[in-house]
Amino acid sequence: MFNAQASIETPQSATITASQGQHDAVSVENIAGSGRFVVVCEHASNHVPPQFGNLGLSPDELQRHIAWDPGALGVSRVLAHSLDATLVFCNVSRLIIDCNRDPAMSDAMPLTSEGTAIPGNQAIAAADRDWRVDEVYKPFHATLAGVLAHKRAQAPVALIGMHSFTPVYNGSTRPWHIGILFDRDRSLASPLLSALRADASLVVGENQPYSPDDRVYHTLDRHAQALGEASVMIEIRNDLLATSQAQAAWGERLGAIIAAM
């Protein structure tokens, strides 16, 4: 079982400590960073705790976007490094519970994803549902809230959500290389969109391939927008993140743009 007590442990890192050999629910890197940004990556991992038996899915299926956002953590790490920002990421697959969804919503523990049935989610017992919330969702959000409070005590803070998306979704090809998502606050989104659109080779989506209407802004709204702080979500097409070099290039590119802002 994960230890659900979230805390900042050292100047360099903060984690939910694992027991019984299982993965941590959440990790924090560079808590001592001097940058005003915090980078959050809810879909960093495709790890399924062993008691769930891979949810009845094959290893190949767990490599797909249904289980995580491939490449997003690599970009997040480079971006955070370039901005001397703190990085918070989840170490559990979104198929167990999507930390970027309200747990009360049906897609927080999906029955199907991108046309694939998730056998282990078809009839979740109340105790298992509570475990997912108590041992993954709550520690993740408690840790993120603690990190942001720690940073706010030093200077104003802004939150960047990092994700990746599939080139084809439900049979439809997605032309965007990158999408910038925002809700009521455009203070980060507008300069990001302008800088990216200055490159004629890029197809840049504005609230594409998702928007807050798709309920993808849960974390950013809860921890930043609802508190009057700046936030933005970045989505990169995952075929452009197939290698560590590609992830680093995007992280450095975004870091240079945001640093200039």
Task: Write up this protein.
The protein is an alpha/beta fold and 261 residues long. It has a single domain (13-260), classed as Aminopeptidase. The protein is built from 6 helices and 12 strands. Strands 1-2-4-3-7-12-10-11 form an 8-stranded mixed sheet, sandwiched between helices. Helix 2 runs parallel beside helix 6. Residues 1-23 have low confidence and may be disordered.
Short description:
This protein is of the alpha/beta class. Helix 4 (189-197) links the parallel strand 10 and strand 11 (204-206).
Please name the defining characteristics of this protein.
18% strand, disordered N terminus, 261 residues, 8-stranded mixed sheet, single chain, Aminopeptidase, alpha/beta, two-stranded antiparallel sheet
Oligomer: single chain
Number of strands: 12
Approximately how much helix is present in the residues? Answer: 25-40%
* C-alpha end-to-end distance: 42 Å
Q: What would the principal axes of the Cα set say about the shape?
A: globular
Averaged pLDDT: 91
Number of helices: 6
Q: Give the domain tally.
A: 1
Question: Mind telling me which CATH architecture this is?
Answer: 3-Layer(aba) Sandwich
Main sheet, how many strands, which sense, barrel? 8 strands, mixed
Task: Note poorly predicted spans.
Answer: 1-23
Assign the CATH topology. Answer: Aminopeptidase
CATH level 1 name:
Alpha Beta
Biggest sheet, spatial arrangement of strands: 1-2-4-3-7-12-10-11
Strand content of the residues, in percent?
Answer: 15-25%
**Class from secondary-structure proportions:** alpha/beta
Radius of gyration, in angstroms, nearest whole number: 17 Å
- State the CATH superfamily name: Zn-dependent exopeptidases
The arrangement of helices and strands along the chain is: EEEHHEEEHEEEEHEHEH
